[in-house]
Amino acid sequence: MALTSSARLPAAGASRVRRRPARRLAPYGFVAPFFVLFAAFGLFPLLYTAYVSLHRVELQTSDRMDWLGLQNYTRLFEDPFFWNALRNTFTIGVLSTVPQLLMALGLAHLLNYRLRGRTFLRVAMLMPYATSVAAATLVFAQLFGRDYGLINWALHGIGLDPVDWQADTWASQIGVSTIVTWRWTGYNALIYLAGMQAIPGELYESAAVDGASRWQQFRHVTIPGLRPTIVFTVVVSTIGATQLFGEPLLYEGNAGGGISHQYQTLGLYLYEQGWSFFHLGRAAAVAWVMFLLIVVLAGLNAALAARRNRTGG
């Protein structure tokens, strides 16, 4: 019996030793599918787009590539329509991001109180976000119609002249920004609401004891407590504005962004270069310029976060 027991002990120890490498490799096996999919559908297209941007590639003959080096980028920076699209992207981004986040902050502050039907209101906040981009844009395009739009009808009712919401530069950009604001305000409001509910209630009680009004509590307690969330939403909204495509494309159904390119964004400019003019190499260069802009914005977010950590805010 002693011999049998002593013979089993080394066998059991050896099996445990064999199981240790398997346990160490198991977490990598669990995350491996993500990295495989990321490499196939994220990293490879990104690198291949960079490769295509260095060649002359036409949509009709996509199997033929002629080496150009950085010529696509130099032509891009010499194209006034690229700078027009970049400027439009910036202005539409500001016109949509600033009102959107301010209204989201105000709505979140109201929802943070104990109101009747809070659950219904929170669900209603997500309805615009859940609505199809195509459906929302087509409805707003009808509302902003020049001749029979509801907006111009209301302006006429108060004695104002009708506005050409498609042809005028600022009016068309305001129209596109309105669609973006309508879709994303509720989404950001719920993000702010989650951040507000994470702020300790003792801070508000202490402020109330010190005689602070609700507005003072909002300024000196809520806003500082939401600072990381506000930075996050600003950066994410700015990145979304950089990639804006569906709303301006469907606003008038024109990849050029209007008759005089008055609301053409970088996304529309990329689409026009690749699928209207068939210059895939130049479109790939636009895509990489947009990617670098997003990297700069992400770096700005990291810098703001690092500064916040240093100052303890």
UniProtKB/TrEMBL annotation:
Belongs to the binding-protein-dependent transport system permease family. InterPro entries: ABC_transporter_permease, MetI-like, MetI-like_sf. The lineage of its organism: Bacteria, Bacillati, Actinomycetota, Actinomycetes, Kitasatosporales. Pfam families: BPD_transp_1. Residues 86-301 form the ABC transmembrane type-1 domain. It is found in: Cell membrane. SUPFAM superfamilies: MetI-like. This is Cellobiose transport system permease protein. Keywords: Cell membrane, Membrane, Transmembrane, Transmembrane helix, Transport. It comes from Kitasatospora paracochleata. The chain crosses the membrane at residues 25-48, 90-111, 123-144, 285-306. It is a multi-pass membrane protein. PANTHER family: ABC TRANSPORTER PERMEASE PROTEIN (PTHR30193), INNER MEMBRANE ABC TRANSPORTER PERMEASE PROTEIN YCJO (PTHR30193:SF37). It comes from the Bacteria. Signal peptide: none annotated.
